[in-house]
């Protein structure tokens, strides 16, 4: 009888040991599975974030490409504006004196764009465009005074506001100033607009 009781106790102990081993195995397996799943999720999240980073970089490059002509125009305009108030000097290209074509020539040259030095020769470069399509950085050409048979004056468009085109240029009477194309004198003298950029 003692032997049978002892045998029953041993059987119960062994069965308990097996069940605890099974539960340990199951918990270990389930934790390993959850670790694998979380690793897979993390790697897929990483893949998504890497893809997003690459796409974001590509978008930035595209934006730079789209902006480059505009920012180049902005740079040229900003360079020209620093000469505002400079006195007129025929053939001048510095702050001590500047003529109209000198102002445009130096402003474009600062952006590594070489134009002819004389306004009538500048008018042969780039593409002729209608006034309604002009942008900042485009050039306006004029026939002024008694020399209306050929282009002899150039200005650089700095802004377009309310159907009025503002341009910077150097005049013999007032030096480097910003004028409006809507002013009667400039509108009458206007010949053509051209795009260099």
Please describe what this structure looks like.
- The chain is α+β, with helices and mostly antiparallel strands.
- The chain has a domain at 79-195: Alpha-Beta Complex (endopeptidase fold (from Nostoc punctiforme)).
- Helix content is 51%, strand content 20%.
- The protein is built from four helices and eight strands.
- The chain has helices spanning 2-81, 100-109, 119-122, 184-189; strands at 93-94, 97-98, 127-129, 139-142, 153-161, 164-171, 175-180, 190-195.
- The chain has a six-stranded antiparallel beta sheet. The chain has a two-stranded antiparallel sheet with strand order 1-2.
- Strand 5 and strand 6 (164-171) form a beta hairpin.
- Helix 1 (2-81) packs antiparallel against helix 2.
- The longest helix has 80 residues, at 2-81.
- It is elongated.
- The N and C termini lie far apart (108 Å).
- Mean pLDDT is 80; it is low at 17-25, 42-46 and 63-67.
In short:
Helix content is 51%, strand content 20%.
Helix count, per DSSP?
A: 4
Number of strands: 8
Distance between the termini: 108 Å
Considering DSSP H and I runs of 4 or more, what fraction of the residues is helical?
40-55%
Can you identify the CATH superfamily of the domain at 79-195?
A: endopeptidase domain like (from Nostoc punctiforme)
> Which CATH architecture of the domain at 79-195?
Alpha-Beta Complex
Order of helices and strands: HEEHHEEEEEHE
Mean pLDDT: 80
Shape: elongated
Strand order of the largest sheet: 3-8-4-5-6-7
Strand proportion, as a percent range, falls in: 15-25%
The poorly predicted ranges are 17-25, 42-46, 63-67
Indicate the CATH topology of the domain at 79-195.
endopeptidase fold (from Nostoc punctiforme)
Backbone CA Rg? 39 Å
- The computed structural class is alpha+beta
Oligomerization category of the chains in this entry = single chain
């Amino acid at each position: 009888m003692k032997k049978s009781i002892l045998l029953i106790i041993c059987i119960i102990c062994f069965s308990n040991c097996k069940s605890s081993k099974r539960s340990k195995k199951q918990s270990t397996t389930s934790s390993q599975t959850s670790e694998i799943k979380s690793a897979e999720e993390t790697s897929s999240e990483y893949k998504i974030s890497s893809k997003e980073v690459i796409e974001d970089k590509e978008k930035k490059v595209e934006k730079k490409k789209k902006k480059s002509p505009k920012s180049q125009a902005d740079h040229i305009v900003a360079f020209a504006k620093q000469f505002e108030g400079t006195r007129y000097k025929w053939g001048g290209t510095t702050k001590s004196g500047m003529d109209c074509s000198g102002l445009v020539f130096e402003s474009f040259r600062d952006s590594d764009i070489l134009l002819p030095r004389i306004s009538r020769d500048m008018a042969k470069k780039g593409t002729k465009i209608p006034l309604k399509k002009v942008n900042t950085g485009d050039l306006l050409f004029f026939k002024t005074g008694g020399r209306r048979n050929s282009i002899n004056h150039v200005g650089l468009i700095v802004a377009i506001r309310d159907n009025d085109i503002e341009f910077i240029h150097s005049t013999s009477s007032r030096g480097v100033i910003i004028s409006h194309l809507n002013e009667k004198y400039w509108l009458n003298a206007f010949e053509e607009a051209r795009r260099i950029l």
